Amino acid sequence: MKLPHFLLFMAFSFTGCGRAGKPVEPSLRDKLAGQYASKLEELRSLSEDHIAGWPSDYDCDSSLWAGVARAAGADWVDVSAGVQPDGRTTRKPLTDCGPTEAGYAGDSATTTSNDMITGLLLGLMTSKDVTTVHRIYTYGEANNWIMGLPKYYVSRVLLRPNGITLMARILYGLSEGKRDYTIRLAPMVYGPTDGDYESHLALLSRYMEQELGGPQYGAEWTEAYLASNFPRDALAQAVAGRYNRAAELLVGDYQSPSYVRGSSSYHLVHWLLAARIVLDRTAEPAE
Questions:
Q1: Residue 106 — very low, low, confident or very high, per pLDDT cuts 50/70/90?
Q2: Contacts of 104 (CB under 8 A, 6+ apart)
Q3: Is residue 3 part of a domain?
Q4: Domain that holds residue 174
Q5: Over 90: is that where the pLDDT of 16 sits?
Q6: What pLDDT is recorded for position 209?
Q7: Is residue 102 part of a domain?
Q8: Average pLDDT of the residues in 84-95
Q9: 206-233: b or e for each residue (b if 16 or more CB lie within 10 Å)?
Q10: In this predicted model, what pLDDT tens digit does every residue of 219-228 receive, in sequence order?
Q11: Left, alpha or beta for 25 (phi > 0: left; psi -120 to 50: alpha)?
Q12: Alpha helices, DSSP H only, in the chain?
């Protein structure tokens, strides 16, 4: 690699959090803010009778969307309900959704997965619940990062390196450096995605990386790829800093991406997170 190209690569690789997207036109932002407030109250009314205030407390993707909802502004959601006292994560609040030690198959092939854990970490990071994040980390260390059952289903229950790195960064940030694991310095590596749940996982991870700050190792290219290849995904546009495009999508006749499935409330949660990112990152600085 020639020196100028190497220097350019390094400049991209070590940028911090935040995006320099163009300011959203005021009337468009005001319209988005109004819809956000209305939809957040709609989600509250749909969730108030559910266990721990989750958008859904019965389907096997509940943990993922509870965490996303908390990050989207649903401060009534108790994300820690998706974590057992020993640190083992579950798909539903306070209970499993999947096989048990006794062999019962349940409604899912595994009791947890990388996308469930990603959602939980997002919500716990937002609520600054360092104690629960540390319980998950301790459980993972003690179990060689096999996070659920059945243990042989490694492709789902083994926490990937990205997840471990992200959790270490969350612990470091929330504890103000008191809980420091060397793996937080490892690069987050993203591969090609098809626009479905792997894309969702990458977008949520990138959003957390941005919020936590620190070295990004060139992963901005991942979000740029997702935003360019999935131009009608408002979350992809928001994470990539294309705030005007995200806002235009959200205030229009928006259709959720394919990875938003399950409870009908998840469409609302997805919309709210994308809108929250736009509104937070285009707010006028306090005087």
A1: low
A2: none
A3: no
A4: 21-281
A5: no
A6: 94
A7: yes
A8: 96
A9: bbbbbbbeeebbbbbebbebbbeebeeb
A10: 888 899 999 9
A11: beta
A12: 3-13, 26-47, 62-71, 114-126, 130-142, 154-157, 161-174, 197-212, 220-229, 234-239, 243-251, 265-281
Please give the distance of CA 180 from its chain centroid, rounded to a whole number. 22
Instruction: Give the closest residue to 191 by CA, choosing from 165, 167, 162.
Output: 162
Give the count of domains, the chain. Answer: 1
Q: Is residue 176 part of a domain?
A: yes
| Residue 6 covered by a domain | no
Look-up: residue for tokens 């005087």?
A: 287
Q: Is 146 helix (H, G, I), strand (E, B) or coil?
A: strand
Predicted confidence at residue 126, as pLDDT, reads 98
**Distance in angstroms (rounded) separating the CA atoms of residues 276 and 39:** 11
Pairwise CA distance, residues 104 & 80, whole Å: 25
pLDDT value at 166 more than 80: yes
- Give the global pTM: 0.90
Taking the C-alpha atoms of residue 156 and residue 150, their distance in angstroms, rounded to an integer, is 9
As a whole number, the mean pLDDT across the chain is: 89
The SS3 of residue 162 is: helix
